[in-house]
From TrEMBL:
InterPro entries: RNase_H-like_dom_plant, RNase_H-like_EbsB-rel, RNaseH-like_sf, RNaseH_domain, RNaseH_sf
One function term, GO molecular function aspect: nucleic acid binding
Protein name per Swiss-Prot or TrEMBL: RNase H type-1 domain-containing protein
Domain RNase H type-1 residues, every copy: 49-169
Coiled coil: none
Pfam families listed in its UniProt record: RVT_3
PANTHER family assigned: BNAC02G40300D PROTEIN (PTHR47074), REVERSE TRANSCRIPTASE-LIKE PROTEIN (PTHR47074:SF11)
Species of origin: Sesamum radiatum
Amino acid sequence: MECITLSPEDLFKFSSNYLLTFHHVHASPARLARSPAGLRPVEGRIKLNFDGAVFAGSQEIRMGIVARDFSSHYVGWKSVRQQRREEPELLEAFAAREAILLAHRFKWRKIILEGDCSNVILKLSSPQLDWSAAGTVFRDIKTLFFYFDSCEFSLIGRFGNNIAHFLAKPGSVIISFGLFDSFAATSHR
């Protein structure tokens, strides 16, 4: 974890500017339109689809994230497995956090987070504080926004999110995350 030191004046300037920008860019829409196939990102942006899954009879949660560039080429992915149970909305919020952490790790500066849970997408795009059980996760995600030049949100239909859902299924992957390039896949445990 990085430690950044700012003077009180610089912290005030940064915070004021950040809040003004945040409220301007992330104004809450009255309603979200669900895109069945998802948005194709414009050049220079990376789209990260995320999904969380809980399975009957299991004490395990799974999260899947897949990243694509403007040409729809896969540039990265991540699968997370943890031994615990969570409510579906909270699990989707955790998956969104894993997606934004993946983007931060690989220094993708312009991103689109795309998921199939309307409550998560609405809460992420809202400037309002959320006091639900998932509220701390949403606040956690929002504190990471300042690392990005652009962070957009998109609601996608279940079918359009099938790759992220596949990565969240039990037995779907052994390796936890990877990066793709035009010649080979590089993966990490």
